[in-house]
Design a protein that fits this description.
RNA-binding, 13 helices, 2 domains, about 40% helix, elongated, BirA Bifunctional Protein, domain 2
RNA sequence: GAUGGAGUGGCUGAGUGGUUGAAAGCGCUGGUUUCGAAAACCAGUAGUUGUGUUAAACGGCUCGUGGGUUCAAAUCCCACCUCCAUCGCCA
């Protein structure tokens, strides 16, 4: 949610920023300002009448005043109906606007994304390399068939060393964040409609979420949904900022529609595990925090020795709430491409405004915090990347050094 | 799931229709006193929003949330949420 006051003050700048990500025909700030003018007009009128009524309600009024106040009450109700209608319309129009983007974010869609960093090289596989689905199945790490029997397509079960590898990854991530003094949260996995709305996933992603309709709850698609709500309607202690969290949750996504053949296996499933980093900062500190989160996410992938690129997204490819996003994409040889393993984003005050999360600044004014999030990391693409990038000619997979201590010092999968 | 109780300012806690945005205490801030401190005493101390130059001043709204009754609601009515207690159920 953008600040109507800022729209009023910096209309030109905001317009210019928004046009980087949406079409001119979808943008009408003048209409929004006009609605706000109208809102104020009604508000003033209503408040004046209310003041009049309050004055005569201080003491017991006589019969004549009661009659007059009754008429006044009806007038107030009538005006209020108009006021509420305008307020709703304004709210809806404001909610439909995406966030502004940072200056350095370029206009346009995916085609304008820019690689800003490349780590390591593509591994040289001087033999007939297998894809991760075959590797996982041949090595007995993942059971796709029985998972489908139990739960249908789009699910898998980790078994044996596969489960240990998954567990090792999560431990490796969690330990890293713990050592950086982030606070660990294991949130509930089901959330209310209100929370999904606050996190910005409703109404847009309604069909991408799993619903426990009887209880009016939905399964979280990312713990970002929970973390964004964690301090909803709170006044944070200024001294406590920045608040740094990492949360583990299983994530559930309907991913309705069929997958492309290349997205077989665990590249895109209904359920996966992810640790998410999240920060609540003072406005002045959010870009420093952004760099920190990016560094942490990159360190995690680098610690596993995986070849990846960091990509700065163009305005149209960032999700609506985000002012800037950098994706970390890991190399999946069998796909001859890179797949996202982390998305590092700064929402500025866009989410905080929706969630009403504020702090009292040194000047005594209440201000909205800035929120940032970054995966740190999701396992479901790291796992395949490890299998494929670390596969050996004999069909085994070398386990990245950093994970071995979580797997009984095992060196190879399949040996 | 059932029954009962509760939800008031930073905290504790009064308040069942009319100058109550809210007693009192605690806490906090300033002052008096003191070499300094404590104690005591005095004064101040909710949020949000609107008009206004982010002044002064004035106004609206806010006693869990949302509706309703009334000229007037913290106070009466309805629904919901959360917490506590007891009972029931329980992978």
């Amino acid at each position: 949610m953008l600040d109507i006051k800022k729209i009023r003050e910096n209309k030109k700048d905001i317009e210019k920023s928004l046009l980087k990500r949406i079409d001119k025909k979808d943008l009408d700030l003048d209409k929004i300002l006009k609605l706000d003018d109208q809102r104020k007009e009604y508000l003033l009128e209503v408040e004046q009448l209310q003041a009049e009524r309050n004055k005569s309600s201080k003491t017991k009024p006589d019969a004549k005043t009661i009659k007059a106040m009754k008429a006044l009450g009806e007038k107030i109700n009538f005006l209020e109906a108009s006021l509420f209608a305008v307020e709703d319309e304004l709210q809806e129009a404001l909610a439909a606007l995406p966030n502004i983007v940072a200056d350095e974010v370029v206009a346009g869609g995916k085609e304008n994304n820019k690689i800003i960093k490349t780590f390591s090289d593509k591994p040289k596989l001087n033999f007939e390399a297998k894809n991760h689905v075959d590797l996982a199945t041949d090595l007995g790490l993942i059971d796709y068939e029985r998972a489908a029997k139990m739960s249908g397509a789009g699910f898998w079960a980790y078994i044996g060393d596969g489960a240990l590898l998954e567990w090792a990854l999560l431990n490796y991530f969690a330990d890293y964040h713990r050592d950086n003094n982030y606070t660990f949260i294991i949130p509930p996995y089901l959330l209310t409609e209100q929370s999904a709305f606050t996190s910005g996933h409703l109404p847009k992603f309604k069909d991408d979420l799993f619903w426990a309709t009887k209880d009016k709850l939905c399964l979280n698609a990312t713990s970002e949904m929970m973390l964004g709500n964690y301090h909803r309607d709170e006044m944070l202690d200024t001294k406590s900022l920045p608040l740094k969290y990492y949360a583990y949750s299983t994530c559930f996504r309907r991913e309705a529609g069929s997958y492309r053949a290349e997205e077989r296996g665990m590249i895109r499933g209904h359920q996966f595990n992810k640790i998410e980093m999240f920060q609540f900062t003072k406005p002045a500190d959010s870009w420093t925090a952004f760099d920190e989160l990016l560094k942490h996410a990159e360190n995690l992938v680098e610690g596993l020795g995986l070849h990846y690129t960091s990509v700065q997204l163009a305005a149209g490819d960032c999700s609506a709430a985000m002012a800037k996003t950098i994706d970390i994409e890991v190399w999946i040889p069998s796909m001859n491409g890179y797949k996202e393993v982390s998305s590092v984003s700064n929402a500025l005050d866009y989410q905080a405004r929706r969630g009403n999360t504020r702090f009292k600044d040194t000047d005594g004014k209440n201000k909205f915090v800035h929120t940032l999030n970054a995966s740190g990391l999701a396992t479901s693409r790291i796992f395949p990347a490890i299998l494929e990038q670390y596969q050996q000619a004999d069909g085994t997979v070398k386990i990245p050094e950093a994970l071995r201590k979580y797997m009984g010092d095992k060196e190879f999968l399949g040996k």
